[in-house]
Amino acid sequence: MRKKLLILSLLAIGILNVQAKDVKVSGPDGKLQVTISDQDGKPAYSVSYNQKKFIELSPLGMKTNVGDFSQEMVMKENTTSSIDENYELKTTKKSKIHYVANELTCSFVNKDKHKIDVIFRVSNNDVAFKYKLYPCGENLCCVINEEATGFNIPEKATSFLCPQVLPMGGFARTYPSYETDYEADASLSSKSKNGQGYTFPCLFRIGEDGWALLSETGVTSAYCGSHLKDHKDGSTTYTIAFPHAGECNGNGTSAPAISMPGETPWRTITVGETLAPIAETTVSLDVVKPLYEATKKYEYGRGTWSWIMWMDRSMNYDDQKQYIDFASTLGYEFILIDALWDKNIGYEKMEELVKYAASKGVGVFLWYNSNGYWNDAPQGPRGIMGNTIARKKEMKWLQKIGIKGLKIDFFGGDKQMMMQLYEDILSDANDYGLGIVFHGCTLPRGWERMYPNFISSEAVLASENLNFSQERNDKEAFSACLHPFIRNAVASMEFGGSTLNRYYNRENSKDKRGNTRRTSDVFELATAVLFQSSVQNFALAPNNLIDAPAWAIEFMKKVPTTWDETKFIDGYPGKYVVLARRHANKWYVAAINAEKKTKVVNISLAGLNVGTKAILYNDNAKLEGNCSELNIDPKKPLKLTIPTNGGALIELDSL
């Protein structure tokens, strides 16, 4: 009787030993299942959803300088537990999160009798796993020389991947900075164009079965940031890669070192038969914890910045004062003053400018260079944020004059030493009540929850590239239709877009030098909702008060930047997106189209619990926008017609 009760108890939380060396753990609803084995002495796992394989048998383990934990291993024991947690977070796609999962810890022993645990957490659509290493004899620390960790993707899949770049390339030798194009729906037979694999996150369409998104979270100064290697010929297994030795100007080690007992970051897999679990996932936050308490209640909201349209020459007192007035007119909370302010405005005049902004109800974010010896970026202020003593002295002054936060740029890679710098900046900034936005940087990996003053990161081909290249404007819609399913699905994304200028120059004139925007005004409004970041510096300019449609300006005055719910409605990566976000008692449904033909979608509002009154922003065939009120039946599909490079946006009251 006791044995029968034990089996029933294990089944109740989705765990069952099916063979002596085979263990399974399922999500709470039983659809998502992970199988762990030690076949032929090699730890491995697979992932299925509704009995369909999303990850085929894939390797686990690692090789360290104190032992090999990838082969000649035996699974000795496993333990189980249930996770049921509630937490709140203002800086992501959902403010109140209920995380329910089953946890399985499998203990493996190598030939030297040294132990390693693999810890799996499985919710209804997410898998997260990490390693825990224990002291090996007298060894209390080790270097992870290589991870065996892999993801064996079914052959029928296609990929949506961003190639990792070679280090010390690009502007002023600042690569890698996660600013590379994605290739959509590529065959798994293809290899990365730089031979360096692919950056996280990585999206795969598993044929007609559904989708899988791979990433990692919980990366601190205790490890490096990772990416995926190219698969070997004849294989579809992508394994974990550590940073290139040349990153950070060749300084620091590629292989991370840990103290034992110690844990690695979590690797995550989100799966679904539709894209809804991908666009709505919070797994990168679910499995991490805050590392310190906030020293103040940080503020979020909208901002403007002159650099995107007026460029370096605008970093002077008079132009910034004009932008402060502009932000005040819009009712915005912030202005971002970008690079070169230290020379063109100066410290003394900056104090005066910050006081003026405060008198207008506008808070100031200031730009800083992160380096340093890791690249050649010359813009100032530089040589401060990478030095502990200089950084703390500077932050004390910033706190004194009332600065709200910093945008810190030009990092140098994913080595453990660079992760230490990110963490040091965040921790010190919190001591002085400063919010942090990173630019020219790595992917944030759970940082919104881990570091309470972390706001957002770029880590994407963002709006500055629209100024630099007409090609980027020509592909703007395509790229925007990727981000909600890949980059912005796993972390906040500081894009700096939603421009209403037709031309990227100060005069907004086709007769002046500057690239031409291809997208509609409604498209740009929609991205203010589609792109999630709790502080958004929109690419607006003072001339937009005169030359942009009044309805567009009025929307940009009221659009929120923090969200209580996010719901996927329809879409396909790189083609079109329809996404809904709720702030307080207002739903915003945003849609954009990158296809070469007009897109007609019938969207269901049934799951949003909305009223019958709506405001619709939409485009005609010539990309001319309009705003109108309409009556709807929330129980019936709503038809939207969206031209190429166009958008649609609906405001609805939540009941």
UniProtKB/TrEMBL annotation:
InterPro entries given in the database record: Aldolase_TIM, GH, GH-type_carb-bd, GH97_C, GH97_catalytic, GH97_N, Glyco_hydro_b, Glycosyl_hydrolase_97
Signal peptide as annotated in the record: 1-20
Record-linked SUPFAM superfamilies: (Trans)glycosidases
Domain Glycosyl-hydrolase 97 C-terminal oligomerisation: 562-652
Ranges in a coiled coil: none
Domain Glycosyl-hydrolase 97 N-terminal: 25-290
Molecular function, one GO term: hydrolase activity, acting on glycosyl bonds
Cofactor: Ca(2+)
Domain of life: Bacteria
Self-association and partners: Monomer.
Protein name listed in UniProt: Glycosyl-hydrolase 97 C-terminal, oligomerisation
